[in-house]
């Protein structure tokens, strides 16, 4: 499936990803509306990974420009108090936005976008909260299909139709989930296989080198390094990789050089794309991969 993905992602300043085919937004940092202009009207579902200001500061203007009855739907981690405050402020500041849906969600919650496509949330480790506290997450974009159970393969169409009529669809088919895209949110690298068989992985890579990511305070927010992400991808069945959230301390040339060095070192063969600091990239997957 071809996806049209437009994004801006610079650590500390702003991050957002727009997937046009599904009217879907991951995070809502500053500049969202200014870059998308009228296309921001296509966004029906906005999933916000956490309440850091660089991931939500564009929501007020986006909502002011695009609110109507029942849309947009803005999903956020249920224990993050910033979002109810923002919803209350928006409704007072721009009374016409009261049709916006602000929806708190749990970990591993499934939100249907249409009959066959859904978003599923998952916990990440950006912030050191107890397991029961829901404040920071990533997302999978999944497509659900049904296929015949092995016992019915090879049967004639008329027989299958009769069985479907007698027993129902669930009796003769099983659900198959395709992971169209995964979005890490701000997070250290996960090694639990959550991105296995993902067609497109969008992952943060705030720091190029491990020594630059040293956390010197136990409550500091955690991020990924480029090296860590590429090492994880080497061991994961990902078809395409989009890297973002680079620190503005790096130039585009420095980032590209390090990507190519590490891609060669780890023997990575899949296409690797990146969002340079300070740049909005339109239709990312139409660009030439860095490698």
Relevant terms:
about 290 residues; alpha/beta; Metallo-beta-lactamase, Chain A; seven-stranded mixed beta sheet; 7 helices; about 20% helix; globular
Structure description:
This protein is α/β, with parallel strands linked by helices and 291 residues long. It has a single domain, classed as Ribonuclease Z/Hydroxyacylglutathione hydrolase-like (Metallo-beta-lactamase, Chain A). The chain is built from seven helices and 14 strands. The strands form two sheets. A seven-stranded mixed beta sheet has the order 6-5-4-3-2-1-14. The chain has a seven-stranded mixed beta sheet with strand order 7-8-9-10-11-12-13. A hairpin with a 4-residue loop joins strand 7 and strand 8. Helix 6 packs parallel to helix 7. It is globular, with a radius of gyration of 20 Å. The mean pLDDT is 94.
Summarize the structure.
By secondary structure, the chain is of the alpha/beta class. It is built from 7 helices and 14 strands.
Using only CA atoms, what is the Rg? Answer: 20 Å
Q: Would you list the SSEs in sequence order as H and E?
A: EEEHEHEHEEEEHHEEHEHEE
- Can you give the helix content as a percent range? 10-25%
Low-confidence stretches: none
CATH H-level superfamily: Ribonuclease Z/Hydroxyacylglutathione hydrolase-like
The helix count comes to: 7
SS content category: alpha/beta
Broad CATH class: Alpha Beta
The CATH architecture can be named as 4-Layer Sandwich
β-sheet strand percentage: 25-35%
CATH topology call = Metallo-beta-lactamase, Chain A
What count of structural domains? 1
Q: If you average the pLDDT, what whole number results?
A: 94
């Amino acid at each position: 499936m071809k996806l049209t993905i437009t994004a801006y992602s610079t650590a500390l300043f702003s991050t957002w990803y727009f997937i046009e085919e599904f009217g879907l937004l991951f995070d809502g940092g500053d500049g969202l509306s200014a870059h998308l202009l009228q296309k921001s009207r296509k966004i029906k579902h906005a999933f916000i990974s956490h309440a850091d200001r660089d991931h939500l500061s564009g929501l007020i203007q986006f909502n002011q420009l695009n609110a109507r009855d029942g849309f947009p739907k803005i999903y956020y981690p249920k224990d993050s108090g910033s979002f109810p405050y923002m919803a209350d402020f928006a409704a007072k500041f721009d009374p016409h936005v009261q049709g916006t849906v602000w929806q708190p969600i749990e970990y591993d919650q499934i939100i249907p976008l249409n009959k066959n496509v859904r978003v599923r949330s998952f916990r990440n480790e950006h912030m050191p909260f107890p397991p029961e506290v829901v404040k920071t997450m990533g997302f999978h974009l999944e497509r659900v299909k049904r296929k015949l159970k092995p016992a019915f393969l090879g049967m004639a169409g008329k027989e299958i139709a009769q069985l479907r009529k007698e027993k129902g669809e669930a009796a003769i088919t099983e659900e198959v989930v395709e992971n169209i895209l995964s979005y890490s949110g701000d997070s250290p690298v996960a090694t639990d296989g959550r991105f296995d068989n993902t067609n497109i992985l969008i992952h943060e890579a705030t720091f190029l080198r491990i020594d630059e990511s040293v956390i010197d305070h136990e409550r500091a927010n955690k991020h990924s390094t480029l090296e860590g992400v590429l090492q994880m991808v080497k061991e994961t069945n990902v078809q395409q990789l989009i890297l973002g959230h680079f620190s503005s301390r790096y130039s585009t040339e420095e980032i590209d050089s390090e990507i190519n060095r590490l891609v060669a070192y780890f023997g990575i063969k899949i296409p690797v794309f990146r969002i340079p600091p300070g740049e909005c990239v339109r239709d990312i997957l139409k660009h030439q991969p860095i490698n």
